[in-house]
Amino acid sequence: MTLKYGMIGGGKDAFIGGVHRKAIALDSTAELVAGAFSSNPEKALASGKELGVKRNYPTWEAMLEGELALPEEERIDFVVIVTPNHMHYPTAKAFAEAGFNVVSDKPLVHSSEQAEDLVRIVQEKGVVFGVTYNYTGYPMVRQAREMVRRGDLGKIRKVIVEYNQGWLATRLEETGAKQADWRTDPKRSGIAGAMGDIGSHAENLMGSITGLHISHICADLTTFVEGRQLDDDGNVLLRFENGAKGVLIASQIEIGMENDLRIRVFGEKGSLVWHQEDPNSLEFHRLGEPVQILKRGNDYLCDAAKKATRIPAGHPEAFLEAFANIYRGVAEAIEARKAGTPLTEFEFPTVQEGAIGVKFIEKVVESSHSDQKWTEF
Amino acid sequence: MTLKYGMIGGGKDAFIGGVHRKAIALDSTAELVAGAFSSNPEKALASGKELGVKRNYPTWEAMLEGELALPEEERIDFVVIVTPNHMHYPTAKAFAEAGFNVVSDKPLVHSSEQAEDLVRIVQEKGVVFGVTYNYTGYPMVRQAREMVRRGDLGKIRKVIVEYNQGWLATRLEETGAKQADWRTDPKRSGIAGAMGDIGSHAENLMGSITGLHISHICADLTTFVEGRQLDDDGNVLLRFENGAKGVLIASQIEIGMENDLRIRVFGEKGSLVWHQEDPNSLEFHRLGEPVQILKRGNDYLCDAAKKATRIPAGHPEAFLEAFANIYRGVAEAIEARKAGTPLTEFEFPTVQEGAIGVKFIEKVVESSHSDQKWTEF
Amino acid sequence: MTLKYGMIGGGKDAFIGGVHRKAIALDSTAELVAGAFSSNPEKALASGKELGVKRNYPTWEAMLEGELALPEEERIDFVVIVTPNHMHYPTAKAFAEAGFNVVSDKPLVHSSEQAEDLVRIVQEKGVVFGVTYNYTGYPMVRQAREMVRRGDLGKIRKVIVEYNQGWLATRLEETGAKQADWRTDPKRSGIAGAMGDIGSHAENLMGSITGLHISHICADLTTFVEGRQLDDDGNVLLRFENGAKGVLIASQIEIGMENDLRIRVFGEKGSLVWHQEDPNSLEFHRLGEPVQILKRGNDYLCDAAKKATRIPAGHPEAFLEAFANIYRGVAEAIEARKAGTPLTEFEFPTVQEGAIGVKFIEKVVESSHSDQKWTEF
Amino acid sequence: MTLKYGMIGGGKDAFIGGVHRKAIALDSTAELVAGAFSSNPEKALASGKELGVKRNYPTWEAMLEGELALPEEERIDFVVIVTPNHMHYPTAKAFAEAGFNVVSDKPLVHSSEQAEDLVRIVQEKGVVFGVTYNYTGYPMVRQAREMVRRGDLGKIRKVIVEYNQGWLATRLEETGAKQADWRTDPKRSGIAGAMGDIGSHAENLMGSITGLHISHICADLTTFVEGRQLDDDGNVLLRFENGAKGVLIASQIEIGMENDLRIRVFGEKGSLVWHQEDPNSLEFHRLGEPVQILKRGNDYLCDAAKKATRIPAGHPEAFLEAFANIYRGVAEAIEARKAGTPLTEFEFPTVQEGAIGVKFIEKVVESSHSDQKWTEF
């Protein structure tokens, strides 16, 4: 464990902070040495104490100052930002500007203006900047990406991507559920609800696998649960620059759907189908041939899929392992930067992808308010 | 076998005519006694001879005349129209006006004007008129319909219905494939391709299960295969009168998808999921409870689902049995009409549903050409 | 419809008689013209009247006499025996000896002595004799058989075949359920319960697909439901002449299992997996390659699988269609016999296969009572 | 991370050692501080260096001596034994006798004599001793166990447990594959091949879920791959003390089967079905009711299942998380021992279960050589 990291947010009661820590621990990718685990300094310190972190800061500003005060080789190698959305921008900006590598949860920031600002800073400072669109870490997603790239499907004609959830089918935010609370609050979540929280994952998964660029969108967002301020459901038609068409569905009111992210990619020669809840398999269809089911852990897979796996076929890997793969990619890039040989291709979602995600959210909301059919992307 | 029927179309090389005949034979619902099996008189007579039909006519006009010349009790009880789409209207109109009961394949006719004309004739003449949206004949579709009706799902919020096929991913119509040929020809198929052929099934399935009425649509139709005149793919956003939202996808270029009609219905209290390729099961989700899988043939199902099944649970029933259920419903209505006690509720898709289907096709095409987001239904 | 048939058994309240009639009607394979539908003459005649059969006999003896009294061209072409098991032998023997073609339900008869007698008669008289091990009629079972025959799996090493049901998990026979009543009564069902009723189907499916010959068996039969006289559960180890091993499981007390007949065949080069409740698919595994899912209705299937299908891929076929395929095979053989060119290979389970099934039941029961591990087959 | 551990075996090229380390790291259950990573001292030291372990020993004997020489509070809290099977006994014995807590891979040892010796030592010394039958760590396995215990299934009648693999379908051990090499060598693997390696997992899973005690077994082991010394396939009939019956299948020659451990439990009131390759679901069948699918991460699950999960429903957990749950249980017991309040019930497989597993292997081999049907357990 050669790398050291600090964390902003992710204290007690938080969900995603623990996921990041487990994902990093799984492969001993880095050691947690510093943290400012809450916007509330008392909670922050209590959480840090519970986690046994060496450098426990009351605020992220204190952490930035404290780390900069250390000799360079003792400082954290990267900071992980797992706060509610509205805190991504100031923290990411401050640490990146100070030369720290950053991993930020998605969606990256609240506006394209902020996103472009971050993109600029990252380029200027040469820092490594990852965005945890974690689903692209699944080995079979990487296999799918490779199969599209190498032409197994031919030219892509159509993509259907969905992220179906049901946990916000009732007004859960009124019951004290912290996860529901901030996600339905525009101040912390941003201009979109379900579309920001999970629609953006769907967009990134689609982009990552197909490499397609959206040209136009037509969105219909809905708030089904009375009293809620943000969308909890949305359906989007897509047009891509290459002429392909698409459908993107994201919902948090579909009762019984747990974390049903799924994608279908149809090309001129073949098709791929992948489901996040059955992540070790990938369906491959070719014209006039039997369906193939490719499975994680087998020799017939591409290098990227093999590299992203730890245990043999049939011993299922899942969500945390996929998450850990994002961190493996980040760590590789950080090691390369430290070694003075920075990478030019990254095996994790970059700040640029994060910026596209922010634009996607903005455009979906814009289109949803528009009477015009197609909103340019 | 007390009923007698005649058939228009469905001769040699036809696909769907044989399906209708098998579906009727399965339950000995009626006996085929007459036919005009092709628009080509020679082929018609040859097909009729091969089928061993008693009253073999060269043309449907001859059949109409011939049957009318018989004593009433010897005439066919109903006519089955399984021609390419463009012949539905003249034949259905002529037979219905002459007082014959009619079963017509879908889509009913080419225009709402024609459809309304048929609706009027059916009402005036009091004939039984069924449209073979056959997928509503599946027992588990009837179970789904009943569960929505009795409130198991609460108010419906969202519907996703898809009809995914891949058999027209290449220009099959150039290879002499008869099924592809007429379906891609606007003269015989009408103004829509995939949307008319299978999108209309999806619309009917959705309407049949949910009882929802479409208020607005926003469609994006595409012709992916070069040289083809009609759409081979389409994605549609839907709004319903009760405030529900929907997505309808129909495609014939999704390689590997065989006859993948599927529907998801999400309500305030629960959800249903059904797939045509696994028709004996129905997924039922309720807030906070384990998923239930309901299976055909069990005592816990509703009466309509039980009535639509023949053999015990675990002995799968499929497409032909569902088709046969449509004919059972038609036969019941015809028997009731003969007995002088006509039914007021029908267990088959009526001419009214057929007319909605025609309107759906028109509105989808209209919307697809429009720059306006929402086209009123 | 050129063939004519008569039926013994299968009247009101019976289950399987109706299945046979529907299976024959589906393809218009033959016309029901005669019947003795019950061992109770009054019930027989009432059932025949309801079915509208032309020659309605009070007893099977009367039917035999009556048919023989007709000019040969007016007689039934074959008789279908769907009585409880104990009546298979006398009826099959009498009709076969009189030169009639016969289709008998399974298990063929109560003892190997009776079975060999029937085999002898069939050979002497040259009649067509089918046994309705209906599951071999599924197209994907025929595909599996062909793949084994042509060596796709290499030498077979292991077979696991199961027939899991749960409908007799309680003492249903005490509730007036006719199907449960005779199946649990040794006088009508024979020496075995679940093993005779469904274990014999499993044995036949295994033999039909693999062509393997059993050399030794080791069985453990159980009666779980108190008061029941016959086995309702059984587990069997198998050894085959070629050195392969096997497991056969048959049970009627496995709650929730509906008609879960499934088989796995493992060879030196590949494996096959098939489930009756998902009959349109066949899993094919090859060393080091992605799983293939073969689906009914596709061009890549073998001729026997294609011949056994009626409608396109994705339009599921099921139990009744498979049953109908058995009758298609029988009809072909009868037509060939009538034409003076009798077949030498049959696309239906023959009297010889029926005799093996009877022996299987005897040996399973013998082994279950034995302290010796292996009972020679 | 309060606990410290050492590892014996698990160096470079080993598979399972890394799995143990990841499983422990995932939850920061303990810190790896010592190791003797190979039976070859040079390899041991090289591996330890690569892993960055503080106290790197050339041999396990040196490790035992070294740790004992440390002040008690600095010593490892437990040792993890992940050597080939033949080294389990001497190492476990030595460390347990010296008062160290132990986690050993399965099968525990080579003979019941050795197993009983370990059981005795564990009791005398009061050490915590876990055996990594890791599959019992899955949340849905714990749910199944609870449902059996609380009577949801009624009295158990039948169990079918299978562990199907195909990776040894060819003579892989001749190709330099280390995993295949020692597993097929009686000196290192013991008297059984597939039955020892995976059959013992199946036995433990069955015992863990059902609580049933085997009374008699009847086994048929086979070596299909020429030249191999140990069984690569086995089928076993089981009888239990309560009158229940069972079938256990374990194979490593079933091509295409990856790590297909599955169990079906049938009781008088209901049934359960679970598959390791789809570990987040559990099928529950009750007489006359729709199938229920219980899913990990939901509130309706029992406490033990909830405690064994980390992330929400729909975010799949898998093999490593289940493995980690075993270590969580071990750590709890060690903490309790350290606190002077040793547990009496354990949430991990104990040395006693390990001993039953060894006996199972012995009895399976004995039965397989016997002409007698039933071998007493």
Automatic annotation (TrEMBL), chains A, B, C, D:
* Boundaries of every GFO/IDH/MocA-like oxidoreductase domain copy: 141-273
Q: Which organism is it from?
A: Deinococcus roseus
Record PANTHER family: CONSERVED EXPRESSED OXIDOREDUCTASE (EUROFUNG) (PTHR43708), OXIDOREDUCTASE (PTHR43708:SF3)
Q: What does UniProt list as this organism's lineage? A: Bacteria, Thermotogati, Deinococcota, Deinococci, Deinococcales
Q: What is this protein called?
A: Oxidoreductase
Task: List the SUPFAM superfamilies.
Answer: Glyceraldehyde-3-phosphate dehydrogenase-like, C-terminal domain, NAD(P)-binding Rossmann-fold domains
Where are the coiled-coil regions?
A: none
- Gfo/Idh/MocA-like oxidoreductase N-terminal domain residues are 3-133
Its domain of life? Answer: Bacteria
